[in-house]
Amino acid sequence: LKVLYFAPSVFFKQTRSSSHECSTNRLSESCYNLVLIEFSVRFINYLTELRSFMMAKEVRFGILGLGRGRKAAQQAAQTVGANLVCVCDLQEEKVKSTAKELDCDWTTSYDQMLERDDIDAIGVYTSSGTHADFAMQAIESGKHVFVTKPMDIDLAKCDRLIELAKREDLILAVDFVRRYRKIDHQVRMAITSGLIGSVILG
Question: Which residue, 36, 95, 179, 183, is most buried by CB atoms nearer than 10 A?
């Protein structure tokens, strides 16, 4: 509740309590407290509803390829609002051990993973040159998809994949994870603020 005391005063000037009407120019201490309590209750109710909404909208993931994809699978298993349902890799021992570690299902068949109706999104972490093909299969199966970079090494395939995602109204994303790392944001700030002077390439 201490945090709520720093809410903008305009809110309190425009809010009426159930039993007291507050002046728009000057709030008595008792009226202020009543408004604060009312605001607190509404805010807590909002957070409760938001949490319920987020839990109801849990995103269920399947990860293909457990080289670089193993880290993505770990992140899906550990992230609030995400649920790692299944991992897939051609190497049976690798996929079994990863599934055991992360407490999810496993398969060596991509087709079998796509047939599941309890997966919303597929992460493709296979060799460059295969991303678009696997992503198209996912979209054709009605699933959202994200691929590790590059989207593909064939520009024509990339164009077809983008058009397919638009046509099916599904999300297609490319995994640029470094954009979210704190150290990279700090480097960017150092460059844009001039902290390290002019950066010259060459």
Answer: 95
